[in-house]
Amino acid sequence: MPHGAKTWVEVSGSAVAHNISCLQASLGDQAGFCAVLKANAYGHDLALMTKLCVEQGVTRVAVDWIDEALLVKQLAPSMTVFLLGMTPDERLIDVVRHEFIQTVYDAETVHLLALQAAQIGKKAKVSLKAETGLNRQGLAPRQLDQLLDECVRLGDAIDVVAVGSHFASAEDPGHPANEAQLQAFQTAIERVQGRGFNPAYLHIACSAAAMIHPMSRFTMARVGIAMYGLWSSPELRRTVVLGKTAVDLQPALSWRTRIAQVKDVPSGSGVGYGATHVTNRPIRMAVLPIGYYDGMDRRMSNRSEVIIRGRKCQILGNICMNMCMVDVSAVPGVSRGDIATLIGRDGMHNISADDVASAIGTINYEVVTRINPLLPRVIC
Q1: How confident is the model at residue 3 (pLDDT cuts 50, 70, 90)?
Q2: Residues 331, 335, 338, 342: is their CA dihedral positive or negative?
Q3: Distance (Å, whole) CA 196 – CA 160
Q4: CB of 351 closer than 8 Å to CB of 255
Q5: Does 31-231 match 253-379 in CATH topology?
Q6: What is the share, in percent, of the chain residues with pLDDT greater than 90?
Q7: 147: Cβ–Cβ under 8 A, 6 or more apart, which residues?
Q8: Is pLDDT above 80 for 242?
Q9: 178, 213 in Cβ contact below 8 A?
Q10: CA 59 → CA 18, 79, 80, 305, 379, distances in Å?
Q11: So, what pathway does this thing act in (predicted)?
């Protein structure tokens, strides 16, 4: 527990190391491993996860935006950094100066990168984003051809080092779109190579695809959610287990707080804003100094649980901005300062990010990435 913290996140260094090792082994020599550290490393803390990646010998990471890339470069100067998201025009000079690999999907960005590169005497490194079926970022075949024409013309300033895309349904092993996207990506690669480019990084595989679609690995796989010990879907987990793949993920994140107050509440009392819970018996209640500002979803109100002294305790009433209330009637000796676990293990009980996601109708990605980045994170 960080000194003086009322709520905090613990990241298991051994779990991260285990997950990276398993995932790298599953890739074999076929594809390079790229750790995805966007969204504050999926809520695990960008600086902390950069340190752990360096310790595990990871040499490539992907982030969403320029400030994330700059922090990684400060902590790991030799790291190859991919920028997956949009970089504002006025920040493209930093992309070129620090040799980040910028994802591009329009001619305007390429032209501006080339201009900045010419000014400082460097080549801008780019990853062309091919549209293969997700219909988000990406270049349709005709647009890709046009952009390749521009890259040829700007050859002294633009270095096409990568071609990438992204699956829409990789976590659904039998989805027919997966094969169609794979074929579309292969066609895009041939278009790029046919114009004389030989990009080192060919990447469409995410965590799910990297584990169950060997043909999707090409020369690099972008591994995000699995590195943190979380499965992108129950279907994926079943497929990996049934296939006896040597990937046994260990969740790395635990989220804890400590009790601010313990009080007795009479029967028939409303709890919290709107009195959405009314006690039907006298109870012992604990107030926790954590709320939706910290990252708890208000849909957890009256639904989710926490663990205190090895016992699960129901959340009562609406979650407040900085506080929530739980029923501790069944917890012997509960007292002010006791630790409450929102995600993680305490004694014989465990609450996973998937448990929280299931209770509120969302996905584990959202649960962990919405934890307030200002909360302290510690390696444990």
Answers
A1: confident
A2: positive
A3: 10
A4: no
A5: no
A6: 92
A7: 104, 106, 107, 110, 128, 139
A8: no
A9: yes
A10: 17, 5, 6, 39, 21
A11: Amino-acid biosynthesis; D-alanine biosynthesis; D-alanine from L-alanine: step 1/1
Q: Which residues pair with 127 in a beta bridge?
A: 103, 162
Q: Contact, 43 vs 370, CB < 8 A?
A: yes
Q: CA-CA distance, 352 to 367, in Å (whole number)?
A: 10
Question: Domain spanning 31-231 has what CATH number?
Answer: 3.20.20.10
* Distance of alpha carbon 186 from the chain centroid: 26
CB 164 within 8 A of CB 128: yes
- Using CA atoms, how far apart are residues 72 and 70, in angstroms rounded to an integer? 5
Amino acid at 365: Y
Residue 40's H or E segment, with its range, is: helix 38-42
pLDDT band at 378 (very low <50, low <70, confident <90, very high): very high
Topology, domain 253-379: Lyase, Ornithine Decarboxylase; Chain A, domain 1 (2.40.37)
**DSSP reduced 3-state for 265:** strand
Partners of residue 327 on adjacent β-strands? 285
Q: Which of 25, 83, 33 is nearest to 218 (CA)?
A: 33
DSSP label at 124?
A: E
User: What confidence score (pLDDT) does residue 39 get?
Assistant: 98
3-state secondary structure (DSSP) of residue 311:
strand
Bridge pairing between strands 270-271 and 277-278: antiparallel
pTM of the shown model: 0.96
For the annotated catalytic residues, the residue numbers are 38, 273
Give the span between the Cα atoms of 224 and 246, in whole angstroms.
Answer: 18
Query: Of 193, 112, 196, 126, whose CA–CA distance to 164 is shortest?
Result: 126
The domains of the chain are located at: 31-231, 253-379
Looking at the DSSP bridge assignments, the partners of residue 268 are: none
Q: What is the mean pLDDT of the chain?
A: 96
Rounded Cα gap, residues 209 and 80, in angstroms: 22
321 in a known ligand binding site: yes
Alpha carbons 208 and 226: distance in angstroms, whole number: 8
Identify the bridge partners of residue 324 per DSSP, sorted by sequence position: 288
Tell me how far apart the alpha carbons of residues 269 and 255 are, in angstroms, rounded to a whole number.
29
Question: Cα(252)–Cα(17) distance, rounded to whole angstroms?
Answer: 10
CA distance 172 to 184: 18
